[in-house]
Amino acid sequence: MSPSGLRRQIGQLATLGLPGHTVPAEFRALAREFGIGGVIFFSRNVAGPEQVAELAFDCRSLVPDTPLWVAVDQEGGRVARLRSPLTVWPPAAVVGRSGDEKLAARFAGALARELRSLGFTFDCAPVLDILTTANNPAIGDRAIAGDAATVGRLGAAMIRAIQREGIAACGKHFPGHGDTTVDSHQDLPVVEHGPDRLRAVEYAPFRDAMAADVAGIMVAHLLVPAFDDAKPASLSRRVVTGELREGLGFDGLIVTDDVFMKGCTARIPVATATVDAVAAGHDMVLLCEHEIE
What we know:
single chain; alpha/beta; TIM Barrel; 8-stranded parallel β-sheet; two-stranded antiparallel ribbon; 11 helices
């Protein structure tokens, strides 16, 4: 394989954050040379509806011979990159309290239609973590509910609705960020549950998501000693390939949480973590410079 061919194969694994409201010349050149797999938007990229739509259109043409993902974290509540004058969506917990699958589907479908109208193709949602620790700083009202059955049932309804609108959904954060007291943006949380508990409880909403044909699943920066006491789940082949790909049989896109988060790179250099994430079995590595949830 030629060096340029190898660069483009590597580039397909990367989804990158942009610095501002337009595509800089150097970013455009990098995207063209490496054939990157996607671009992810944050609030720093949003000035208004027309500007966002124009930027999304520009991003889709960065790699002419290969369609790339135009992604965003649009959950509702505190994790919403698109805000007024676009729709201000409630957090998932509000939908969860209703227990109503039809309402969950209406909520997610309307959110996805707005994303599609702006040119997005990939939403890093819904959150499938079970809020079993009430003071969880990373998850909180981002979670649909505190029990696996409700999270799985309503999460699957949201996924189906999002994907009916032509947006790829990405359930998160495998193997489960709901029973933690540390925010993985700031440090590495430890999940002390054993394999039987994780597979019976935390994995349940992800199995429901797979039954709903979810396009992607995001892996969290969590230390899970039951499977790997040395590497975060996001960098562990035992978790990414062993548990998610082989154990659960997931055949869709496996996505990292942002590699720049301190839960990943406070102890490991970004370059090393990126290589480890690919070796663990990820199909998409998010390199977002600290801002992804």
